[in-house]
From TrEMBL, chain A:
Keywords (A to Z) from UniProt: DNA replication, Nucleus
Cited InterPro entries: GINS_A (IPR021151), GINS_bundle-like_dom_sf (IPR036224), GINS_Psf1 (IPR005339), PSF1_C (IPR056783)
Descriptive protein name: DNA replication complex GINS protein PSF1
Pfam families: PSF1_C (PF24997), Sld5 (PF05916)
Major localisation: nucleus
TrEMBL record, chain B:
Protein name: CDC45-like protein
GO terms for cellular component: chromatin; CMG complex; nuclear replication fork
Coiled coil, from the record: none
Subcellular location: Nucleus
Compositionally biased intervals (Acidic residues): 169-191
Amino acid sequence: MYGDAADKLVADAKRSTQLTHLPLYQGELIQNIINETNDLQAEVEHLTNEEIVSQTQSQGDRTNQCQLFISHLAMRRNKRCLLAYQRYRAERLQYMSWLNNTTGITVDEPGAAPSGKAADSLNHNEEEYLKKYNELIINYNKEFNESLDLTGDIEPPKDIFIDVRVLKDVGEITTEYGVFNLTKDSQFFVRYNDVARLIQQGYLQRL
Amino acid sequence: MYILPSNYNQAYNHIVTTSLTHSTCKLVIFVSCLDVDALCALRILAAVFKKKLINFQIVPIVGYADLATHYTRLDADVNNIILVGCGAMVDLESFLDIDVGQFVDATRSLEAETVLKRKIFVIDGHRPWNLDNVFGSAMVTCFDDGLIGDLALEKDAYNFLVNIDDDELNQEEEEEEEEEEEEEIFEIDETDISRKRKSSSSSPQTKQPKTRKRVIKDNETTIENYYGQGTTVVTSVTSQVYSLVSLIGETNNLDNLWLAIIGSTSLEHQYPELWARLADLFRKEVRRLNHGADEERTADDSRLTVEKDYNLFLLRHWSLYNAFYYSNYINSKILLYTEQGKSKLNKIFAKMGISLSVAQQLWIYMDIGIKKKLHNIFTKVLVNQYGFDSLATEGYFRSFGYNGSVSARDCVEAISSLLEHEENSAPSESDDIDALTAEKEKLWVANFWRSWDALTDLAKIRQGIQLALFSQQLIFQVGHSIIEKKQLKNLKIFRLVVLSSSDYHLSLTAKNDASIHTNTAAGGRKFFLNPLNLMKLGNWLLDTISEVDDTLLPLVLAALDLETDTYLVIGMAPKVPKRGDGGSAALLNTFSVAFQHVANTTGVKVRIDSFESSVIEVRKDDLAPFLEKLTLSGLV
């Protein structure tokens, strides 16, 4: 049926809103949809062929007109689904880049763990998009350089010190006052400011 | 070094003053992973340090090897290390390869005394102490339970020998050129908990007065006797921590007391005399803190109360019948694993005037009239007619507002079940023993945090209780089958049970409870590979045996891990049957010494890593020779 593949794509996008990470880019499915759309286009061209048009019009048969209409609808629907999918992905990427701003998600930087995972599942256009978007954020941030950090947490902190559990080995981190060594599977009671970013990035879990 | 109970606050003050900096983390707490007591103690400590805004790191550790690796990874500027629930039995300085000289604080040291930059505090109930920690090391501070004072003899012997050692070593160096000889020297084996002697050849030199040699010998025997007497747990870590917090005036909230009670209760079953000693103190504390509390129930009610409780298993969380059936106490009293036992249980219910259909209702739906009369019925029938005189005990209950209340005993069962149960135990592909062990230990750490979270979360405690019901059923099932199949062998000096994997196929009716994952049931295969679970089974067996057999033989349990081809072996001290007063001293566990001796004298490959020194791992093929040697050694 026309539109089945597109429907699958949208359903997939909807499911993945529940996930914490961005799933793999559905390249194959998208290619299928495009192929389908191309087929439809070929059919439309065939139907609008003058010979056929004049033939059917003279007989008063409106089947072709109907088919033409359906094909158009199917094509438009495919297009909308593709756009919706791409928009959803783009929003996720933007969200990620606000969270991870300082580390900067580029594919050739495996250091950032959660973004690294996402980077694997991006297609190269998305990578480009992410890189550019990151640059935009950084440039925009420069205007407020010293007075304001746009990428910080919006919620005001309730406690100065918090409990955090280390989910992934971080190694040594440098804070305002000194140096920490965050080893996996241990729990720390530390200043919120020192680790806020690491929590955002998923290295630490706040209790 | 050691510190008396009345001076705990000095240790605390030291920690606070030397750790109070916001620049970095100067306080690290290592905690024994599979230990409810240590977990609770740590929570109290953590709350206290948090109040002081001290940065600290908590590292759960699974065994000695883990402790050593984590220790080496510490930052250089860590000033204080607290060991909770572990470390009392090893010579920490040499085990962790510490060069004390490195940590001398030159700026603050006076000529007379050196001040160390780093200190290690040991809060642990395992005994015997390693005497190097207590009397020797300047860096290690042991929290005394008030019993170190009794070790005067050992102290003298230790000091004497340490001095001798130095002298003789010097002598030896001098005489080296003249003739090669070996003096008796003590060597501290790094992986070894006890000390053992190097080969001794008597010196041809007769110049040394014989008396001197005898004195040395005497002192050595004193020390060896101390180490050789067997291991036990003399105090709960939580009670030690609680006395610390009471010295610094942090005992005005119920949370600390509640945690202390849970922690100490966790040792009740295995070390009843320990609990008996502490119960009085806790009762007083509860009374003190409850003074003036409203009788009326409110939404934020978090009262602690002392109420009547029974030696029945999780009575409030399933049916009365099951609570009877799955109670270790009842089981050992009426020999439930026999047919007569089962009919006897029904008879008991008949005598109590409770119909079986009522008894099988869930506790919360049971007739309130019966519940109210229950205590009278119990005293009249069970105590007077059947002589179950230690059935009724005291229990501590914490209420959580309108969400209900939970007893300390139930809480212990829940928390320990959370520590035991391996969630998402996916079969792993790797067949490397080290990798598998590491994986297992990782799960233990994850469980540790799960239990940590559960301590303050009633919903999670309830989840744990479901798990506890499950494991108790499993233990009973396996226990019954062990006795039915006569897998319990009475050897000359100990009893032996070997579980090979086929022994515990589960026939439990699957419960439609979301909290018990199906892979928990599938994990039944691995269930007894957790030392805590195996120990519970051992406890069950000991309880049961103690009622039918008067000879006090200790028990050795071995469970096969098919994946790593090793046996998990634990040795347990025999139990004296529960009597009315319950005040019989627990017998010391002599397996730690014996296991070590056998491992050292034979070529058997054994891994001794657990903080519970009588828990070891043996390769599959080595089990038979190991047990044989154990029998022959006569050390148990």
